[in-house]
Amino acid sequence: MTDNDNRPGALAGLWATLRQPSSKYSLLTIVVIAFFGGITFWGGFNTGMEATNSLEFCIGCHEMRDNVYQEYRKTIHYTNRTGVRAICSDCHVPKDWTHKMVRKIQASGEVWGKITGSISTPEKFEAKRLELAEHEWARMKANDSRECRNCHSFEGMDVEKQKLRGSKMHKIGIAEKKTCIDCHKGIAHTKPKGMKEDDDE
Predict the structure, then answer these.
(1) Domain ranges of the chain
(2) Which among 33, 64, 92, 180 has the fewest CB atoms less than 10 Å away?
(3) What's the pLDDT tens digit per position in 153-169?
């Protein structure tokens, strides 16, 4: 008799054990195993999610490293007098779990772009820059610039200590209930060619 001849009996035995566990496999044992298995799964899943929020992960493909990352390195969000750095995920990934998962699912479309090579060269990237930027601006507008507000808020601003133009524009923004992205397009990346006139503030 070969090992293959024993498989149907082994599967039937396993199924019988799962349906009616013996005293050796009490309900308490099953609950404890499920509990620790759940913790292990959740810890691994959350660790994986956090790893995808690192700067190293974000610039792991040449499309990001050679294009937008090089622009970002020249901005105040990368180097400034206080040493506080905002990385890609600070601006592009929500902090709370529900919105973060939605954003991660949306970002899976970027994986498709990587596979198809739609922005694999600087020329292809420039050709799609306006479309990509408009998608991100629409997302930020829809959520009231939530990620910007993790660090910046009208409530926390002392507009009287700002430069004259900034102070004036923030007072208008507060009065008109504007959101950050209404005025601050291109704050960390080069503005795309072909932007509409009213977007080019």
Answers:
(1) 34-147
(2) 33
(3) 999 999 999 999 999 99
